[in-house]
Every structure is written in structure tokens, then in C-alpha cells.
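::Encoded backbone::
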Amino acid sequence: PSGLPIPSPKLINGRPLVFFRTYVGAAAKATQLGLMEGDGLMRVVDEAEKALLARGVPKTSDKWIDLERDVEEAYKTLGMVLS
């Protein structure tokens, strides 16, 4: 994993506080919390990948590593949502 560790989620005044590295990670957390549908999550995955490709970010970049980790989490989340 790249960068600093992400803090664990917690409740503050009964509301979830979650941390993430990418928009895909944020969308996966939102889907897990029932704040977003699976189709919206997949749109975020698609747009995030397109954005890195359009900017010419090398596949060896930490940005891709972070994105790929969060995409994996997104697919796990979709499995939970679709089950």
C-alpha cells in the first residue's frame, strides 16, 4: 500500500466518518452505507480510470496502485450489494 495508513472508520454523534484515498474508495464506502447505488459506483470506477488514462499517468504510479486497490474494494462491495 502506498502513502500513510488510512484511519479506521468511526462514529461521531451517531454518524459514520470514513476516510479514503480515491473517489472510487469514497463511492465504495457510500455504497456500503446505502448512500449510493451500485450503478453509480460503477460510473465512478469508469470515470476514475478514464481520468488517469487521459492524464497519461504511468501505470507504475502510486495513483494507479491506490485506484486498483479501491476498484477491488468496489467490486467486493458490489458483490455484497447484489447478494
In short: Strands lie at 10-12, 15-17. The longest strand covers residues 10-12. Helices lie at 23-32, 38-54, 62-82.
